[in-house]
Amino acid sequence: MSIIPPHRQFLHGHQAFYIYPFESHLHMTHYLAVTSTCYEETNFILDQDSISNRSNVTKRGTMCVSHLEVSPGYHTFRHEHDTASYMLMSYGFGLKVGYSHIISFNTRPVTCQAYDDIRDVTKEYMCEDVNQSFCPENETEDGGEIVSWPKSDIFKTINSTKICPLTFTKAGIPIWSRRCNLTDDLEVIWNDPIRNHCGDEITINKPEDLLTAEVTTGNVEEVSSTLQHITEEIEDISTDDVTDVAQTLTKVVGTGSSSKSVTNSVVRTVDTVLTDLSKAEVSDGQFNTMDTAFSTSEMVQMMDQQLQQTLEVEDNFTITEDAIQVQAFHLDATDNPGDYTLNPIKQKPEDAHTSVVLPKAIFATQETTVSVTFVLYRDDALFRPPSKSLKEKPAPELVLSVSVVTSTKIEKLLQPVVLNFPRPQNNRTISSTTSCVFWDFHENNGVGDWSEEGCKYAGATDDSVACECDHLTNFAVLMDYTDEVEEMSEAYTAFLDILTKIGCTVSIIGLIVTLVIFAIFNTDKQNAYSQINQIDNEDVPRDKRVVTMTISIRSQSRVCSKYLFRDLALGLTNDFELVNIMFDL
């Protein structure tokens, strides 16, 4: 046997070594022998790969020797803990040749630490003095029920997977808990299980009853399903109900659950709130408050987040409710799909004229599939700002929400996203002042409000109204209308203006002439007034009666033309016999 030492050096905390290659005809096989205490032998890393699961292990008392086959060339080796003790040796054998060589020793005293959170102290001890560094898997029995306990580190408290049901005041907390402890004699043991009190039994009839429940991955499906059912039972929704539903939805989504059943319950709950709010009487401002606006805006965000969480693990899915329709799917951007058109599932005739066209620029830079969610809200009740701004225009009849998960933020697109909304069948002409808007969650200190930034009105057809936006979010169109009768009258505006000017000019000339005649033929003004005041209009023939007019010249020229000119001309035709004109400029 020939002994051939390998090259070794320390490199960035790793043991780096080199296994010499041999002639191919020698058929050499190379091994790495690692000697350590048995509780440490599961924490080695060879060439960035953990070698914790290995079967070729020889035990000698408390020591373990692992034999790993390696290939010729450079390798790195380390232990997860820099202070671990081990010996590294390489060896190999083939046809009439072999070698063995100690690569390194790491025999520094190994000190372990464990933090006791109950006593708030850190305990140090020699690792080799402890029989093991964890509590093994275990099962206990309580009242005939078997409770399983997973492997646990020292000074860790493990909770049971079974939790208190929703019908108790402490719903969601674990029924049992158990602690892995280290005794003063350095023995690692399980403490006895502790049964936690679930509180008093309660009845859940309204969203408020769920606020005290702790929502975890263990009961999130139960909580979301219960919230859905009690929300559907509300007869007259209140502002407090809206707030309570939003808070519970936040806790449900906050568990990170991607369960399809949870997502269905979340969408149906939001759909119910949307339907109830759209039917509620809002003219008195009951729901036009900051708290309600914040809660409804939060619902929209939570539902969007839940859809994304589910789409991460699910394939394409759709959810269709009365007021909300959801389509979620994966699109392979590597196929160069070009402009991609999203159409809702047709439930109503106007759905045929609703669509979103995503420009190909969104997918051009993506190297994998992208996640797309398309939500249609048939009412804007979840998007009502607490104050008026440009929302003085008619409320949108539906809202389109589009979300595309990509590696880059989608904004300021050179080729815009085109949104087509169905045109209301009210025989009214859409004004050019119609606004295309999106719901900005940052407005009103996080409450949200409609914003026109990045969006513009792109025209209308007989069936639809088009908008263009350079980003993605929740979109709507705030339409201004102009009655067709008023549109026809505007065609005569120029003619009426000319007629008004002519009429007012003639009226003024006639007034001047009347005043001149009155001044000439009535030298004694006081006597004339006295005589006029004694006249009884009932005794004077109709064509001789005093005509008294109050002239008010206003900004609306058509008023001047219609009344002043007519009445003044009538007075002039009476031969100026008795005319008393008073005017108020």
Automatic annotation (TrEMBL):
Keywords tagged on the record: Disulfide bond, Membrane, Receptor, Transmembrane, Transmembrane helix
Top-rank taxon, per record: Eukaryota
Main subcellular location: membrane
Transmembrane parts of this sequence: 498-521
InterPro entries recorded: ADGR_G7 (IPR053066), GAIN_B (IPR057244), GAIN_dom_sf (IPR046338), GPS (IPR000203)
Location of the GAIN-B domain: 315-485
Gene Ontology CC: one annotated term: membrane
Protein name: Putative G-protein coupled receptor
UniProt organism field: Stichopus japonicus
